[in-house]
Structures are given as C-alpha cells and as structure tokens.
Amino acid sequence: MLRTVRYYSKVINIKDKGEKAARVIRSEFSTLKEHYDAPKYPIVLCHGFSGFDRLGLFPLPNLLNDTTKKTKELTEKSLIELDYWYGIKEALEKLGSTVFIAKVPAFGDIKSRAISLDKFIEKKCKNLRETESKSSIYNKPNEDESTFKDKQEPIKVNLISHSMGGLDSRYLISKIHNNKENGNYKVASLTTISTPHHGSECADFIVDLIGKNQILKQLCPPSIFQLTTSHMKKFNELVQDDPTVQYFSFGARFNPRWYNLFSLTWLVMKYKIEQEQADKFRQLIDNDGLVSVESSKWGQYIATLDEVDHLDLINWTNKARSVFDKVMFAQTPNFNPIALYLEIADQLSKKNL
C-alpha cells in the first residue's frame, strides 16, 4: 500500500516580508499517495526554452505507399519519440483531468511564445466548447449537461508551466488575455516550476561571453538576452499580475556530482551569483543547474524541491545518477516528478480550481 504524505503543510507568500523560511521538500515526493483529486478546470502544460510537446527522431518511411488513415498515422510516427512532459500528461488524465500540452516556438522570444500559447489555448477551448458538456469540461460528471456552445462565458483553465514557460504564461495573462474580449478561455491559476522570474545567471554568463561579437549575437536566440537578470527586472515592472488569477511557484536545488548533466551550468550559476551578489552569496547559491531558488519565487511560493535538477522536474531524470547513487551510496531516488504534478492537481482541486 502506498503511504499517504502531507505536502502543502504551509505556504509562503514572497510578497509578504515574513520571517519564515521557505519550505524544503526532501523526500515527500518519492512515492505516490493513495488518492488524489482532479482539479475542476482543464490543465494546460506549458514547456520551457528549447522545449516541445513531442519530438520525433528518425521518421519512419511510408514503405507501402498506402493512403489509408492507418498508414498516414504510421508516416507521422518516428523510430524514437521524446515527450517533454514524460508520463505526466498520462498520469493527470488517469486522475480525471482534461490536459493539453502546449507547443510554442522553442527558441522564440517571450512575446511570440505567449502569442502562440494564446492561439493554442483558444483553439483547444473552442473545440471543447463545441464538443463537450460543461460538466465534462469542469470535471463534474452528471451535474450539469449544459454547454458553453451558445454562451459568452469563457472556459476556465489552470496553467502549469516549467522554466521559461512560466514567463510566457505571465505575459499571456497580463498583456494578451486581459486586452481582448469574448475569448474562449480565462486563466484561473498559474503554477510555475523553476521559472526564472528574476532571470538566470546562466543567461548572464552567455551574454557576457558573447560581448560585442556580432556574429555570436546573431547566432544566439533572442530569448537568451531576455532571460538575463537585468532584463527580467524590466519585465517584472511591465508585466503585472492579474488579481483575478492565483499564482503559485516551486523552486529546486541540487548538489552536483561529476555525472550530473547540469554540473557545469551549476558551477556557472555559482560563479555568477558569487560575482554579482557576494554579500548574499550563501543565501542565493541554491539552484537546479539553470535557475536559482530565489529566481523561482513568484506569487505564493510553495516549496523548494531538494536534490532535484532542471530536467528532473519534467521526468527526464538522469538515470546514470540514479544507478550510481544506488550502487555507491545505497540511496534510492528521493523525487518522483509524477507525484509532484499529481499533488499540484490535488491542491488545485482543494482550492476549487
């Protein structure tokens, strides 16, 4: 039997200058609980920088040259397929949630990604409006068989965003969604997971490295420049929160070993933080290899995930690390990302979202 674990025992609102330290989660997400509730509103998963919904490598050829639907589907498949949200969508759907995986320009700037995200959600909610009952969309079976089809009422959604996806989502809410009328959806909540709300020192390092080299500037995606700590100060001044939307956030940190994917970037983060904020170095050093814990904080900060790197958060766990820890240190993984997302869904449900 799976043990039941209490996760959200307390939350910290970083906008209130309280004295309590943010909660650190070390092993509570290592196993699944016996029961989770599905949230009321559909979930939209928003990927980060260089992300995708599903990436196909080595497309399978249409050897039979058939025009049937079955063969057409075959040609759209690949020998190797990678899911950005590996196993997460399926787990949330088994819970009973309506889940959409957004796809935006992988290396685009924040505004263009937010525009794409808006179009994606509009299209999905328009389809829901035309095909599903209100009770089905809002996960309340047999309660209300009316539909949104002939109503101006928008469909409410919960956004769950990883990394840069949280910035796209904030821009969407503040600058796009609030400036249009009669849309098909309304954002009810935004949960960000290791989003660089205050910039990334890794981006600072890259921009410093580029310097005045025009060739490197042309090769570097514009979003890298937007992810710097200096640019995000301006971003936060211009992109204001919507008081009708609930904002939640998580951060992550880990201590790298030689085989970790983010060992080098962790050192870059450490170097830049020490260089730029020596007076607060010890307090700010915690990071997941790309985003510091301090930069991850926005709205109601739920917790810091301990010994978790940037890709662990989307279930791309470093298998080499897991095996090495088991063999050399007799340690089992302390983090199951599926448990994190199921708990987020459960807590959204408890907030009637």
What labels would you give this structure?
single chain; 353 residues; alpha/beta; Rossmann fold; two-stranded antiparallel sheet; 37% helix; disordered N terminus; DUF676 domain-containing protein; DUF676_lipase-like; AB_hydrolase_fold
Describe it for me?
The chain has one domain: Rossmann fold (3-Layer(aba) Sandwich). It has 353 residues and is of the alpha/beta class. The two termini are 29 Å apart. It is built from 14 helices and 10 strands. The N terminus is likely disordered. InterPro entries: AB_hydrolase_fold (IPR029058), DUF676_lipase-like (IPR007751). Belongs to the putative lipase ROG1 family.
Question: Could you give the topology of this structure?
Answer:
Elements: E1 12-13, E2 24-25, E3 43-46, E4 54-59, H1 69-75, E5 78-83, H2 88-95, E6 99-101, H3 110-131, H4 134-137, E7 155-162, H5 165-176, E8 185-193, H6 201-210, H7 214-219, H8 222-226, H9 229-238, E9 246-253, H10 263-276, H11 281-284, H12 293-296, E10 300-306, H13 319-329, H14 337-350
Parallel strand pairs: 2-10, 3-6, 3-7, 7-8, 8-9, 9-10
Antiparallel strand pairs: 1-10, 4-5
Domain DUF676: 148-249
Family: Belongs to the putative lipase ROG1 family.
Pfam family, one: DUF676
